[in-house]
Specification:
CATH topology of one domain: Rossmann fold
Low-confidence stretches: none
Mean pLDDT: 96
Radius of gyration: 19 Å
Bound molecules: nicotinamide-adenine-dinucleotide
Number of helices: 11
Structural class: alpha/beta
CATH class of one domain: Alpha Beta
CATH superfamily of one domain: NAD(P)-binding Rossmann-like Domain
Oligomer: single chain
Strand order of the largest sheet: 3-2-1-4-5-6-10
CATH architecture of one domain: 3-Layer(aba) Sandwich
Length: about 325
């Protein structure tokens, strides 16, 4: 730590949530170093407003020796680890990149963080590690029962972090956010798929009967929650971050259609995702005790998101 300025290394900072986190951290005067492999999901243009304020390294976290050179050069105080393969459908087709990045990449970061005496390691996990919940809410103490390759690799990464805490007194905190939405999300995830299809007047694919329930968290609130945990969260603890706002996928698609002035006839039911988790839902009383709460209602967040995609169709086209 140099004076009061904290140097943080953010992996996956060119991703959807990571880039929002970087923007907010820069505003809060952190010195930010981004490490990102710029996979298909990583887009440097997400950082265009803050590129002049940060250091950016195009590096794969699976490459331990190159990663080490960044730790040696930059000597960060804290790590916020977002980098991951994140799309469940891709993990069904080929889980190899998920095993590499989510598990081995995390192990590399733990090892280097130990070697370079990092003060705090914030590990970004997901509520999907709990598996599905038909009723009730998962608490941080609930068992992990991942049901797809993506969530299985995320749970594996958490186990590595937990093992490092127990074995090496590793100063880590685990964060489990619920489903995020907002500007800049890659258009393979449900909400940007729905919006981009409507913008092109094309059918919207809805899995099964659209009965699945998701808890929607606006990305700006998620990044704000992670910053709260960075500043006030306890080491060796786990924090859920969610909105408590749950909606069936079919209802979500209908809401977006209505806001965009299009007919529900665009909805097209498609074969369900194998092993599709029915519902995720988390109890967030622990992070709320740190003084955080979501500021954006789903109604406002979804309107902002629709407006953003409408104004950024050139970006969508480029992808
Ligand atoms: N999006 C959500 O709804 C959500 C919800 C809960 C948790 N999460 C977790 O939050 C984190 C960020 O999610 P996101 O939606 O922003 O993901 P994303 O797919 O938009 O971004 C992932 C980023 O990681 C980078 N990356 C991937 N493999 C890498 C590697 N080997 N080395 C370096 N960089 C690599 C990519 O280039 C990309 O910039 C992930 O850990 C994810 O599991 C996401």
């Amino acid at each position: 730590m140099r004076g009061s300025i904290r140097k943080i290394l953010v992996t996956g900072g060119a991703g959807f949530i990571g880039s929002e986190f970087v923007r907010q951290a820069v505003l809060q005067k952190y010195k930010v170093i981004v490490v990102d492999a710029l996979t298909y999901a990583g887009r440097k243009e997400r950082l265009k407003d803050v590129l002049k304020d940060i250091s950016f390294y195009k590096i794969n976290i699976c490459n331990a020796s190159v990663l080490k050179s960044v730790f040696a050069k930059e000597r960060p105080d804290e790590i916020i680890h977002f980098a991951a393969e994140t799309h469940v459908d891709r993990s069904i087709l080929d889980a190899q990149p998920f095993l590499q990045t989510n598990i081995l990449g995390t192990y590399n970061l733990i090892t280097l963080s130990k070697e370079f005496n990092i003060k705090k390691f914030i590990h970004i996990s997901t509520d999907e590690v709990y598996g599905q919940s038909l009723t009730g809410f998962f608490k941080e103490s609930s068992p992990l029962e991942p049901r797809n390759f993506y969530s299985a690799t995320k749970a594996s990464a958490e186990h590595l972090v937990h093992a490092a805490i127990l074995t090496h007194d590793f100063p880590a905190t685990i964060v489990r956010p619920s489903n995020n939405y907002g500007p800049w999300q890659y258009p393979e995830k449900f909400l940007p798929v729905v919006i981009s299809k409507i913008l092109k007047n094309q059918p919207i694919p809805v899995y099964g009967k659209g009965e699945q329930i998701r808890e929607w968290l606006y990305v700006k609130d998620c990044a704000d929650g992670i910053l709260t945990i960075l500043k006030k969260g306890a080491l060796k603890e786990i924090y859920n971050i969610g909105s408590n706002f749950e909606k069936k996928n079919l209802e979500t698609a209908k809401t977006i259609l209505k806001l965009m002035g299009k007919s529900e006839r665009l909805i097209k039911f498609v074969k369900d995702r194998p092993g599709h988790d029915f519902r995720y839902s988390i109890d967030c009383s622990k992070i709320r005790k740190l003084g955080w709460q979501p500021k954006t209602s789903f109604e406002d967040g979804i309107k902002e998101t629709i407006l953003w995609y409408t104004n950024n169709q050139a970006w969508l086209k480029k992808l």
